[in-house]
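Marked as duplicate of an earlier ticket. Keeping the data here for the record.
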Amino acid sequence: MSRPQYPSARRDDIVDDLHGTPVPDPYRWLEDPDDPEVKEWLDAQETLFRSAELEGRDHFRGRVAELLRSGSVGTPSWRGERRFFTRRSPEQEHPVLYVADEAGERVLLDPTVLDPSGLTTLDSYQPDKEGNRLAYQISVGGDEESRLYVVDVATGEPVEGPIDRCRYSPVAWIPGGEAYYYVRRLAPSEVPAGEEQFHRRIYLHRVGTSPDDDVMIFGEGLEKTNYYGVSVSLDGRRLSISASRGTAPRNDLWVADLAASSPEAPELVVVQQDVDAQTGVHFGRDGRLYVFTDLGASRGRVCVTSPETPGPEHWRDLIPEDPEAVLSDFAILDGMPEPVLLVGWTRHAIGEISLHALETGERIGDVPLPGLGSVGGILERPEGGHEAWFSYTDDITPTAVFRYDALTGETTLWEAPPGSVEVPEATTEQVVYRSKDGTEVRMLVTSRPGSGPRPTILYGYGGFGVPMNPGFSATTLAWVEAGGVYAVAQLRGGGEEGEQWHRDGMLGKKQNVFDDLHAAAEHLIATGVTSKDRLAISGGSNGGLLVGAALTQRPDLYAAVVCSAPLLDMIRYEKFGLGATWNVEYGSADVPEEFAWLWSYSPYHHVREGVSYPATLFAVFGSDTRVHPLHAWKTAAALQHAQAGDRPILLRNETEVGHGARAVSRSVELVADQLAFLARHTGLKVS
């Protein structure tokens, strides 16, 4: 293998002094995508990537596309006898929003009809309480900016919109469908330069009026990086508002009685404030206030109280914390003489649903599930009943929707994905290994029958409390079918074992996450699953940071790396995209102690000349408004300069897509390139 001829990238003598530490930044000029020199460099990188010998690309493109022909289906949201859901058939690029009622099933919103180019995505939707109007949000080209519209459900005709600056906005309808609460950023002219992505507020909007006339309800004078939640009870009497600083694992929470104060000026009562816990509330049809919290319970608990006394001192445990399972959600079924509570759990990342007496919380049974997989979105009818719907998937089963009937105790398939695909014979085993400090960590390992060592992809995330639960993956199955092994490590920083598991991998404890990944790799090698020359790691976003740190800390341990939409310059990450909302997860370089955490592992700053680094593919997206591509650009340049070995450092730039949802065909091309790259550099032979 010969060393590639890399595009020339100048190294500037830029060194910042931060808290007495010299911080070099030779590629800062790559932070400006509009600079002609940067554009020329990126064009040259794209030419280099396209010239790479990736023999397996056509094979993986075809197989991943075939597996994705399973399509998809979402759990239904009910409004009376009308239900709303998404479905993607095998030939479609995006999920389509449908409504079904006594008149049959019909399309409400098809993103591809709105935009035949495939660049428009449906971000979210929320029907009003009667099911007569529906608010939906769309974005274009991956920017995730979420323009909000309202449509008449019966006719499909537009009612209003767009309202801009609605990224990550909930919509909380007031009964009658004439008004709703929502979250909108202040206009760019009202905020300091560079802070246009922040400064959210909660507003009350009257349908048909100008958003410029909306009444600001909440958020004035609070932290600029706050995210807000808002909801209204089914009867319209109760309002709840939550606020969290960025992605912090804690929130402030208030409720209001809209019968005692006007919707324009609700009198808020504190549920919790300045408390280090995450809490949400649900106003039950029985008049009780249900509280879902990790206060004093890292794995979560459900409490009850009266809406008139919402504070923690009045909470009574209904579902106490389980020492081994994480509480994920719940649903109330009251359409029978003895109402019950369905409670969703993940036990070491495997989904369960238990059945409890609603009044006492006593466990009285379990809901039958199709297998050992992931359960999501337990939903009941808002007005009550004896039925609940939830999604289910596992490593070889595409996501389907199931129905539970509390009268019969039966679980039945409600709707399967519309496509039929043949999946390879494969099994998944959950193994336990020990990290550097002795902590037990779990890992899901999927493979076909056979013995090792085999080419293996080790995937991880390890941040923001996000769990790595089992689920159908065209990427995994295509790799395993070709003869490889796919392992998913459930690292600290995630949510697989509750909030403490998350906190053991954030801020000053972030190195635990990287140690957990290194230990996973060493376990796979020690047990004969793979070998160093056949082991690859892959991760995106926070997982991109993970593999970036891994390749700079242990370049000897990995043969190949795929690093997608990564955070890599951890000294300047807060200055770009949504970075300022993540300092509650990572820390801030402005604070001396926290700078020391970041400086200890920041991948861009730990690239060393004369080191033989793994083959590395950076994949970034031009419309990514969360993580700026500059992280990958700067680190790719640094690695290309420093690489002492012959293994390539490549950069894949993709335009008109962002951090999140995209058309299926764009996903296929990305995965094909990534798998072909990893196959070439781990010795996986594909036909």
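See parent ticket for discussion. The chain has a mean pLDDT of 97.
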